[in-house]
Amino acid sequence: MSDMAKADFLLMLGYADHHEELNRALAEARLTRLDKPRINMDKLERAEALLAGSFLRLCRRGDCRLAACALAGSRTLVGAASAEACGVCGGQALSGARGRMAEACARAGWQRLCIVGGSPNSRMEISRSMPGALEARLVDGTATRSLKEARDDLEWAQHVVIWAGTQLDHRVSTLYLGAASRSTLACRSVQKLFAHIAVAAERRVEQAGGGA
Ligand SMILES: [Zn+2]
């Protein structure tokens, strides 16, 4: 397992600020030492669970700020690194989209998805939040992919999403244009990706005449 700078680690967990305080909480739980600048990636899950108990991440929406006062309890309010990382709206929206995707894919009979593109952070978020019944191959859109590897992906996956508008080279996306079942999404958020997959699966069920 690799390690990474603590600031990046905290950003990946969705924390935009209060890094000193967060670091102190991690140190108190013995997940790190205060003076260490880096942290091992295998602590991601434990750190996430620990910090969620003491901090609530918030986006900039006024509604979320208002709701947070009632929701936070004893938790400290901190800035969210992205809308999805917001403990009020993002969490709900993401888990709503995730549930809809899981249901739609089950009805379409999809268990294997291939997602081409996305940032390293978004791939991390997808691997953490993918429903258990679904497997996803996440193809790095900036790394070289051989024709054979792409063909394997196409044979394996029941649906391919070309995640345009993200870190995706044309020469990588081109390899996947021959997929039998394919859709293209042009926005960056993981929540929108999940919603997009749900729509694609729902459409598939309709085309198959109501599934069954
Ligand atoms: Zn929010």
Characteristic key phrases:
212 residues, alpha/beta, four-stranded parallel β-sheet, two-stranded antiparallel sheet, 8 strands, 47% helix, binds zinc ion
Explain what this protein looks like in three dimensions.
There is one protein chain. This protein has 212 residues and is of the alpha/beta class. It has helices spanning 6-12, 19-28, 44-54, 62-71, 89-108, 120-129, 147-156, 170-173, 190-207; strands spanning 3-5, 38-40, 55-58, 76-79, 112-116, 135-139, 159-163, 182-185. A four-stranded parallel beta sheet has the order 6-5-7-8, with helices on both faces. β5 (112-116), α6 and β6 (135-139) form a beta-alpha-beta unit. The longest helix has 20 residues, at 89-108. It is globular and about 50 Å long. The chain starts with a strand and ends in a 5-residue tail after the last helix. The site of zinc ion (ZN) has 7 residues, from α5.
Spatial separation of the terminal alpha carbons: 43 Å
Bound molecules: zinc ion
**Chain-averaged pLDDT:** 91
Strand content: 15-25%
Helix/strand class: alpha/beta
Please mark out the parts with pLDDT under 50 across 5 or more consecutive residues, or reply none: none
The number of distinct β-strands equals 8
Q: Profile the largest sheet.
A: 4 strands, parallel
Net shape:
globular
| Radius of gyration, CA atoms, in whole angstroms | 19 Å
What is the chain-wise order of helices and strands? EHHEHEHEHEHEHEHEH
How many distinct helices? 9
Biggest sheet: strands side by side, in what order? 6-5-7-8
Helix content: 40-55%
